[in-house]
Every structure is written in structure tokens, then in C-alpha cells.
Amino acid sequence: MNAGRPHPGRFITFEGGEGAGKSTQIRLLSEALEKAGHAVLQTREPGGSPGAEEIRSLLVTGDGDRWTGMTEVLLHFAARADHLERVVRPALSEGKWVLCDRFVDSSMAYQGVAQALGRHLIRDLTNLVVTTTMPDLTLILDLPVTDGLARAGARDDGEDRYEKMGQAFHETLRQAFLDIATDEPQRCKVIDATTDINAVHHAIWAATAKRFDL
Ligand SMILES: Nc1ncnc2c1ncn2[C@@H]1O[C@H](COP(=O)(O)OP(=O)(O)O)[C@@H](O)[C@H]1O
Ligand SMILES: [Mg+2]
Asked: What is the predicted pLDDT for the residue at 203?
């Protein structure tokens, strides 16, 4: 059922630190939902639309201090506005399941908390840009920082700006995601990401089935 949602679709976001398994798991959930007969759109942030992908390349490459925190957060929300308007909302209006790799909780954890811009700024920008298009379900993939960085380091995709930021930064991020889950237990589900890929997928499928009565 669609009780309380402003659109006929379903909006699921994947959150967590570098190497937690978000991209892996979004693919698997996408396949499982399609197999069950649902129309799925798989997307990611920053990016997900042509303009937002251009902004993404400004954000994920280069030195850690390439941007000041404020510029960085505004670039993220500029990309998000484009992605929401041109991709996410149209798909939700068509009744699709939209699965997004990172969303506003990453802005909160990375820019709001780890880069210390403050929770208020992120909440204000979220109210302005996201308005009612909040996820119906957010899966927070949790694992020890060293495990995640080891996985991400083995990936070698050139998008390593955040990976280079150091252990303490990533510990702060992990806790920030867990705090969001505590604050918003209806929307967020913490998934133990330390187990093998299949076991994580099963936990995600179970959480999705429960949330949407599948
Ligand atoms: N549960 C898992 N156990 C072991 N390795 C994993 C697991 N999930 C993902 N990986 C591997 O770890 C790396 C990072 O996974 P990825 O899905 O790209 O993470 P993220 O998108 O969260 O950064 C990839 O090489 C992936 O194959
Ligand atoms: Mg990824």
C-alpha cells in the first residue's frame, strides 16, 4: 500500500561508509525486485542525471581540501536538485521503485557531522531541496572502518577523494550514520555489512519485504 506517501512509487536509499557494499547490494536488490515483477530505477548520488554526474566529478576527484565545506555541501545539493527534478520524482510518479546509492544521510554524515558544517544546515537544505521526497526506507550498511577501507582500497576506481581522509574521519562518519538510524527508526534500518555478500543481500531483502509488505 501507499499510505502516507506523496507518490505511487517506492524510494529506497543505501547509506554507509566507503566499501560497505552499497553498490554491490543495490544491484542485487534491483535484480530481486525486477524478478518479482517490479519496475526499478537504479541511481546514485552525487550524480544520477547528466548534470549531476558532471558535478559528481568535481566532488569525488582531486585533493581532500579542493573545496571549502560550504561550497562542497552546496555542490552536493545542487546535484541533488537536478537529480530529484529530472530523474527521481518522474520515476516515483510513474510508480517505479527508485533505488539510490547514497542520499541526504550522506550529506548529514559527511558534511554535517564529519566536516562539521552542522546538522541544522543540512536539515535546512534538505527541507528546501528534498521537501517531501524523503526515502520510504533507508538501509544503513554498517561495518568496522578498517574493513570498509580495505574493501574500497582494493577497488581502484579513481574516486578516492573521501577514502584518503583518514581513520578518525571515517570513524566519525560511521557513528553519524548510526545516530541517524537511532533518530529515525521508522525510516532507517541498520544492516550488518560484515557478513558475506549473499547474507547481506538476504538481510536487505528481509528489511525491504517487511517495510513494503512484499
Ligand atoms: N559482504 C562483502 N564481503 C566481502 N567483500 C564485499 C562485500 N560486499 C562488497 N564487497 C566488495 O568490497 C568492495 C566494495 O564494495 P562496494 O559495493 O563497491 O562498496 P560501496 O559501494 O559501499 O563503496 C567491492 O570490491 C565488493 O566486491
Ligand atoms: Mg559504491
From this structure: 98
C-alpha of residue 33 to centroid of ligand 1, in Å: 20
Q: At what angle do helices 69-83 and 119-129 cross, to 10 degrees?
A: 20
Measured CA distances, 135 to 57, 78, 113, 132 (Å): 25, 18, 20, 9
Which tens digit of pLDDT belongs to each residue from 153-192? Answer: 777 677 777 777 788 999 999 999 999 999 999 999 999 9
Ligand 1 center to residue 187 CA distance, Å? 24
Nearest CA to ligand 1 atom 13: 151
Q: For domain 11-212, give the CATH number.
A: 3.40.50.300
Ligand 1 close to Cβ of residue 18 (< 6 A): yes
Summarised one tens digit per residue, pLDDT across range 59-104 is 988 888 899 999 999 999 999 999 999 999 999 999 999 999 999 9
Which ligand neighbours the alpha carbon of 142 most closely? 1
